[in-house]
Amino acid sequence: MSISVSEVSRFYGAQQALKNVSFNIKSGEVVGFLGPNGAGKSTMMKILTGFLPASSGKVSVCGLDVTDQDISFRHKIGYLPEHNPLYLDMYVSEYLHFIGAVYKIKNIRKRVDEMIESTGLEPERHKKIGALSKGYRQRVGLAQALLPDPEVLILDEPTTGLDPNQISGVRNLIKEVGQSKTVLLSTHIMQEVKAICERVIIIHNGQIVADARPDELENLNLKDEQVVEVEFDRKIAPELLLSIAGIENINETAKGWRLSSRQGTDLRPELFRLAVNNNLVILEMMQKQQSLEDVFHALTKG
Predict the structure, then answer these.
(1) Are residues 106 and 254 in the same domain?
(2) What CA–CA distance (Å, rounded) separates 259 from 265?
């Protein structure tokens, strides 16, 4: 296992941030680590990288015990924290050479050139970091995290504050990196999870509440209902829809109606009959699928 977490708890004084958290991540997996603010995501990531000790439990990275005094495991990890700490008065190339020297990387010049090319920093390499856009600063952060060629990459909110174009660029870079490294990615952007991650771990109030593939989570029966959205060629009275057996709730939308029924009751055949009997034309009808965002809200509400 690249990452192994067993019964980890963490206290800040009397406040418990993590409660017996356990999970494993295999080599080469790209895993999304989700949770609302204050759920314990950043605390868990800081423990994985050795910046915080666990109050109890065991953590290992690439077979090396994180709780041990030996910090050699850090050479296995590339870490991009939520608030990307950079030396703004240093030039991009200068900063990466400095980081390479800290890691005692051989052939630093060649490795820095490789990272600048792979992260798309070539046009900015001779600029001061303080003069870069937020997107390019994130790329510098990713470059320094990748510089020692780590086996595990831990990214805490890597696209926070970026515009859509910048998000797309950083997302593509993470996908490319994920082909050869284990990646643990914390984010609030569900589209990012679906686009990048093979697996999702959701944490709430310091506890793991879900651990599955994105498609498996979307198929969870968290709400015992079926939802259908339908649009007719003309406006109709809600009483007409309520005449259909099985409908439990109706809501008018900008285009038509959103109807819900108990899970297992398919409303679509009855809606077709209703249309035929009342000379209505169905312009659009769609069975609403549960989204990853719906699952996240259901598992972390309250």
Answers:
(1) no
(2) 12
Give Cα separations from 127 to 93, 157, 190 (angstroms).
Answer: 8, 25, 33
Does residue 200 sit in helix, strand or coil? strand
Rg from Cα positions in the chain: 24
CATH number assigned to the domain comprising residue 163: 3.40.50.300
**Whether residue 250 is found in the same domain as residue 115:** no
Are 21 and 185 within 8 A, CB to CB? Answer: no
- For residue 143, the enclosing domain spans 3-218
Q: What are phi and psi of 270, to 5 degrees?
A: -70, -35
Residue 136 carries which side chain, given as an amino acid letter?
Y
Confidence of residue 128 (pLDDT cuts 50, 70, 90): very high
Q: What is the pLDDT of residues 245-277, one digit of tens each?
A: 888 888 898 889 988 887 667 888 989 999 999
Which residues pair with residue 79 across a beta bridge?
A: 154
pLDDT tens profile 133-152: 888 898 899 899 999 989 99
User: Are 160 and 71 in contact, with CB atoms under 8 Å apart?
Assistant: no
- C-alpha 283/C-alpha 36 separation (Å) is 38
| Residue 82, pLDDT score | 81
**Alpha-carbon distance 30 to 22, whole Å?**
17
